Amino acid sequence: MSTLLSHPKTIDETLSNLYLLPQLQQYSMGGAVIGNDGQTYISPDSDRKYAHIQEAQAMKQTVNNYLSSKVGKEFVRYTKEKGKHFTPIVGIGTKDLGENTVAALITNDLEAILVSNYDGKGIEQRTKEMAQNYGLLDTQMMLDYVITHELAHAAGYKSEAETEVFVKDFYTQLAQNSSGKEQEKYLVLASIAGLREEQAYQSESN
Ligand SMILES: [Zn+2]
């Protein structure tokens, strides 16, 4: 489907390596990941295996839908056009990441897994709440935005501010190449990215 999703030989090893990354050590709770080999990997500390598997499947579907949508295809094209390369994503799933996260890219720079934050609430519900915070009625728009943001991290953008700049420029270009309601929609997302860029500068300079 996409060169973005690679299929390593040693996915279970990769996943256990990724789960040992220092940035994840602060989270004690579990999750589940569906590898690109089609297998489901449940982290040993999962305290609700069934819910984690359900949510991992929902997240995988969300990402697949994104990659076959216009926005997803355009984003992959845009990123390559800018000379950026995606860190291969070897699995998609979910992990309990505390309160204030919707999704995250867990990466060691060689490989990555893309997870939603479960912690009792699925990607759909979290995205809906995020959309409400920005006064958006269209949850799908917000969902596209969330995946675009995480894939911008996979394209090598580390800080939140530089990630939002890339996302903002992408939606601005999409808006320039469209018209009417569609254009309006992309402009709204570009302005949300701009807002989040400002917030990131403020919190990153603290
Ligand atoms: Zn981010």
Q: Name the beta content range.
A: 5-15%
**Which residues form runs of ≥5 with pLDDT under 50?**
none
Average pLDDT: 87
Q: Say which molecules are bound, naming each kind only once.
A: zinc ion
Please report the distance between the alpha carbons of the first and last residues: 41 Å
In what order do the strands lie side by side in the largest sheet? 2-1-3-5-4
Radius of gyration: 16 Å
Structural class: alpha+beta
Shape: globular
Fold topology:
Elements: H1 11-19, H2 22-25, E1 31-35, E2 40-42, H3 49-68, H4 70-81, E3 89-95, E4 103-107, E5 112-117, H5 123-133, H6 139-154, H7 160-176, H8 180-204
Parallel strand pairs: 3-5
Antiparallel strand pairs: 1-2, 1-3, 4-5
Helix pairs in contact: 3-4, 5-6, 6-7, 7-8
Bound molecules: zinc ion.
Structure description:
The protein is α+β, with helices and mostly antiparallel strands. The chain has a domain at 11-121. The protein has eight helices and five strands, in the order ααββααβββαααα. A five-stranded mixed beta sheet has the order 2-1-3-5-4, with helices on both faces. β4 and β5 form a beta hairpin. α3 crosses α4 (70-81) and α6 (139-154) crosses α7. The longest helix is centred in the C-terminal third of the chain and has 25 residues, at 180-204. The radius of gyration is 16 Å and the shape is globular. The relative contact order is 0.12. The model has no long low-confidence stretch (mean pLDDT 87). Zinc ion is lined by residues 149, 153, 160, 163.
